[in-house]
């Protein structure tokens, strides 16, 4: 099947892109690794595509004392290859290297993954656990959001008409931070059936467990309760997973592995 007819625009700057989105009623295009197949299957039929993948405003990288602000169009491969600074001591490159296949990583972007909001994708779960702050821009002005507030369900976000993700700020972890990440896939490169990310950063008073690959929004547990099996079971029951014994066992196993890794794995200095 081929995509339905659409107009294509490649604006010179972010303001022109936002103006084009509003005027054309179109959809932003960056790496196109999720949008392209949706177009070909006619699951998405925008009147226009506004290509934002080469805009300087979305390709910037700003290193700060407390973290790094990435432009939304930075690719998975650039993170994997260390072409941009990493405030997490190796977490971001490790996650990027496990996304799909290299051909996808060469074009896919962090911002595009968040905007697509597939609950089984790696970046939403990872960035929620890291406490990333998402920068959004519209002609009416900028705003910020955390991942759990941006993604309200599977393929469903709080992005408003004419608004795009312009950047992602990832906080710098302390030297004492510990991290665990596990996902279960049928084969390498596929989306996960279950996934979990754990961040324990005592100097910053953070203990956070994020569970992805659900059929709804991510589960975020914080504080001492992240290792409480009763709390986990209640959370899984709240989104219907506990009703499927096999699926519940898979999620419990993935969470247990992530928690175990976080107890022993310190991030790099």
TrEMBL record:
It comes from the Bacteria. Keywords: FAD, Flavoprotein, Oxidoreductase. InterPro entries: Diverse_Substr_Oxidored (IPR051312), FAD-bd_PCMH (IPR016166), FAD-bd_PCMH-like_sf (IPR036318), FAD-bd_PCMH_sub1 (IPR016167), FAD-bd_PCMH_sub2 (IPR016169), Mopterin_DH_FAD-bd (IPR002346). The keyword Iron-sulfur does not apply. Residues 1-175 form the FAD-binding PCMH-type domain. The keyword DNA repair does not apply. SUPFAM superfamilies: FAD-binding/transporter-associated domain-like (SSF56176). It holds the Pfam family FAD_binding_5. This is FAD binding domain-containing protein. It comes from Ancylobacter crimeensis.
